[in-house]
Amino acid sequence: MPIHDLSYQHWNGQRTKTPTALILGRAQLGSVLKRRSVRFLLLAGSLLFLAYLIIIWVEALAQRGGSELPDFIVELASNVSLDSKMMQHYLEWQAYLHVLLCIAGGADLLALDRRYRALQLYLARPLRVPDYLLGKAAPMLLLLSLTSWVPAILLIVLKTIATTDIGWLIDEPWIPWSVVLYSIMLIGSLTLVTQAISCTSPSPRMASAQLFVFVALTRVASEILTQLTSNDHWRLLSILDDLKQVRTWLFHEPLPSESSPWLSVIALVVMGALSVLLLRKRVRAVDIVGES
Fold it and tell me: What is the pLDDT of residue 73?
């Protein structure tokens, strides 16, 4: 009777052509979208988008109807219009929503894997660290996109269609580019910072709390130091202030701070670089016992 060798045998199958980061990202995205807090925040963002659609509708009616419209619509259309300033305000009002989406939809993703020591399982398979991080970042990339450049570009297209006039965009040609560039800075910095904070704690609640404390504490500390020293450069410590400085600069609005907007860009890049360094140190297949 033959004796079969029960030792390890190499796998002889064929790997799927679908990128591993995409497979992990779809799984993470499905679980994040099931959360009530995430759906509520997306609903809040859609209400603001709806308000801007009403502005476009009123503006289009005023251009087509003229004197036949009620006086209050004509007066409203003369006071509000979707231009560079209004688009900048739209993204400004979404800023806190972006932070809450990171807390609700991304701050605990790496922390959960550290809690259950799942990194060894993920990285033992044909999944590289960059693919793992990209898959874990997929929910934040989508959520932040749905509340930043996607609705902003859609508003630009809808206004052009509703008013049948592209002249307003010719007068302010920087609007689409400003939306895209600001969204890249926003999504990149918040995603990297969220992942870096998430990988430092094995507790999902602690990771979410740490992200909130980081954003709030740096904002308060920068404000206090600015008031005490009368030096606006302290605002570079706050990621929200840096994003605000970059946003107003890109939309050609008066800067809220006297510091150069290029310094805010450098500060965001430095935060992202530090986050990458922390991720390279903490996200690995071997987890040292006793490490916090």
Answer: 60
